[in-house]
Amino acid sequence: MAKSNYITRHGWNTLDQELKFLWREERPKVTQAVSEAAALGDRSENAEYIYGKRRLREIDRRVRFLSKRLDVLQIVDYHPKQEGKIFFGAWIELEDPNGQTKQYRIVGCDEFDPQKNWISIDSPVARALIGKAVDDEINVNTPSGKAIWYINKIWYQKD
């Protein structure tokens, strides 16, 4: 399944800041350290040179990825028409049949974060939630079996 190109404004800004940091600050520092290490002589046993070159390749790989990804990402901003229904960027409170509640936010695949309970728009849970309203019931097939949740609350954080 192809990943979606949607992202919140906050998520796009975060990726853009990372790209600028890597290109303007981190890469020049590492390049300087590599050239200083190279000036010391034998490069084959020079750990600083070897590590610096490896780090430079990692930075360049990430810069290439971010540059290409930021070009295709589509920022999805909040719109008042979304109120009352679940769409991209929504915060949702779900309750299972046992009364346990969980809160999630639907975000792009480039910004999902399990520690923050941010789930990707491409996940089965998010797909089941899109378009639903408070008091609706969703059924989702999970690795541990079928899960049933009730939607208690929907809200949007305006960026």
UniProtKB/TrEMBL annotation:
<dbReference type="InterPro" id="IPR036953">
    <property type="entry name" value="GreA/GreB_C_sf"/>
</dbReference>
<dbReference type="InterPro" id="IPR028624">
    <property type="entry name" value="Tscrpt_elong_fac_GreA/B"/>
</dbReference>
<comment type="function">
    <text>Necessary for efficient RNA polymerase transcription elongation past template-encoded arresting sites. The arresting sites in DNA have the property of trapping a certain fraction of elongating RNA polymerases that pass through, resulting in locked ternary complexes. Cleavage of the nascent transcript by cleavage factors such as GreA or GreB allows the resumption of elongation from the new 3'terminus. GreA releases sequences of 2 to 3 nucleotides.</text>
</comment>
<dbReference type="InterPro" id="IPR006358">
    <property type="entry name" value="Tscrpt_elong_fac_GreB"/>
</dbReference>
<dbReference type="InterPro" id="IPR018151">
    <property type="entry name" value="TF_GreA/GreB_CS"/>
</dbReference>
<dbReference type="GO" id="GO:0003746">
    <property type="term" value="F:translation elongation factor activity"/>
</dbReference>
<comment type="function">
    <text>Necessary for efficient RNA polymerase transcription elongation past template-encoded arresting sites. The arresting sites in DNA have the property of trapping a certain fraction of elongating RNA polymerases that pass through, resulting in locked ternary complexes. Cleavage of the nascent transcript by cleavage factors such as GreA or GreB allows the resumption of elongation from the new 3'terminus. GreB releases sequences of up to 9 nucleotides in length.</text>
</comment>
<dbReference type="GO" id="GO:0006354">
    <property type="term" value="P:DNA-templated transcription elongation"/>
</dbReference>
<dbReference type="InterPro" id="IPR001437">
    <property type="entry name" value="Tscrpt_elong_fac_GreA/B_C"/>
</dbReference>
<keyword id="KW-0251">Elongation factor</keyword>
<dbReference type="GO" id="GO:0070063">
    <property type="term" value="F:RNA polymerase binding"/>
</dbReference>
<dbReference type="Pfam" id="PF01272">
    <property type="entry name" value="GreA_GreB"/>
</dbReference>
<dbReference type="Pfam" id="PF03449">
    <property type="entry name" value="GreA_GreB_N"/>
</dbReference>
<protein>
    <recommendedName>
        <fullName>Transcription elongation factor GreB</fullName>
    </recommendedName>
</protein>
<dbReference type="GO" id="GO:0003677">
    <property type="term" value="F:DNA binding"/>
</dbReference>
<feature type="domain" description="Transcription elongation factor GreA/GreB N-terminal">
    <location>
        <begin position="5"/>
        <end position="75"/>
    </location>
</feature>
<comment type="similarity">
    <text>Belongs to the GreA/GreB family. GreB subfamily.</text>
</comment>
<keyword id="KW-0648">Protein biosynthesis</keyword>
<dbReference type="InterPro" id="IPR022691">
    <property type="entry name" value="Tscrpt_elong_fac_GreA/B_N"/>
</dbReference>
<dbReference type="GO" id="GO:0032784">
    <property type="term" value="P:regulation of DNA-templated transcription elongation"/>
</dbReference>
<keyword id="KW-0238">DNA-binding</keyword>
<keyword id="KW-0805">Transcription regulation</keyword>
<feature type="domain" description="Transcription elongation factor GreA/GreB C-terminal">
    <location>
        <begin position="82"/>
        <end position="156"/>
    </location>
</feature>
<keyword id="KW-0804">Transcription</keyword>
<dbReference type="InterPro" id="IPR036805">
    <property type="entry name" value="Tscrpt_elong_fac_GreA/B_N_sf"/>
</dbReference>
<dbReference type="InterPro" id="IPR023459">
    <property type="entry name" value="Tscrpt_elong_fac_GreA/B_fam"/>
</dbReference>
